[in-house]
Amino acid sequence: MDKWTPSLWLTAKPYEAYKGTEGITLPPARKLLEQSGLLVSQPPLSSSKGYQSPPHNARLDAELSVLDIGSGLGQVTIALLEALRAHQGRSRVKIIAGEIDDSLLGNLRDQKKSDAWGEVDVEKLDANQLDKPDNTFDYIFANFLYFLLPDPIAGLKESIRVLKPGGSLSLSTWACSAPLQLIQRSIALLPSFPLIPPSPPPGGSWSHPEFVRKILTDNGLTGIKIEPYHFVQEARSPADMARKMLPVVPIMTAKWGEDRQELGWKVFEKIEEVLTAEKGHGPVKIWSVALIVTAKKPQ
């Protein structure tokens, strides 16, 4: 059932909400792979043209274990598999796509049934309490994950625990979220909205590069690199972009109480109205800035 309706939008499970939003966080996923040193020069998923040979330190000739934690719709895993297919040695890379939500896991397991996911194991994993031994993975990727966890620092510590000495941790976080700004502007255009302000995503400090650097340094990581990445998020129309906001609006309106159902749907209507006024009825582009972060666990 499509729950993109005024009466059902709040009941959408994560996969139902996120379906169709892959492009929102896919560009940073590709950038994470590039900055990690595992792969470079990621092309669009539809083409393998434009790849460069990986650097000597990319270690594609070695047996590598990779964890995509908080995999969601599998953006990191999809981008990594596409990239590996352009290189020799892909059979020597083993990937775990870890996710805790059952609805998202169902989608990942459907992906696993295809031949394209032969190198991937899909597992139910809690990022705050990973059921894995110490020093297991060569590379860990966490695309827009830690700041959303109940305990972000505990999640980070768990990733470091299961990372091998000399291994690479790559994470992304928002520096400036265009979806968040778009929703805030749309809420401001409602004739009336609850006195309680809309709630931003938790972990707002993770938007600041020096905060992220300090957290990683305090937890013993070295070789820290933090790069801002300006990227576009696209939709076919203002209505399509409004639909892509379904995962975010529930977070923003979480404290609205009884007004949430009706006014929350009006937020989607205002998003479409704002974008139509600015962009017309055709394709829509909005721009965000992510922090692309890589660090090493000391030998």
From TrEMBL:
GO molecular function: methyltransferase activity
Domain Methyltransferase: 66-167
CDD domains, alphabetized: AdoMet_MTases (cd02440)
Pfam families reported for this sequence: Methyltransf_25 (PF13649)
Domain of life: Eukaryota
Protein's name in the database: Methyltransferase domain-containing protein
Native species: Kwoniella bestiolae CBS 10118
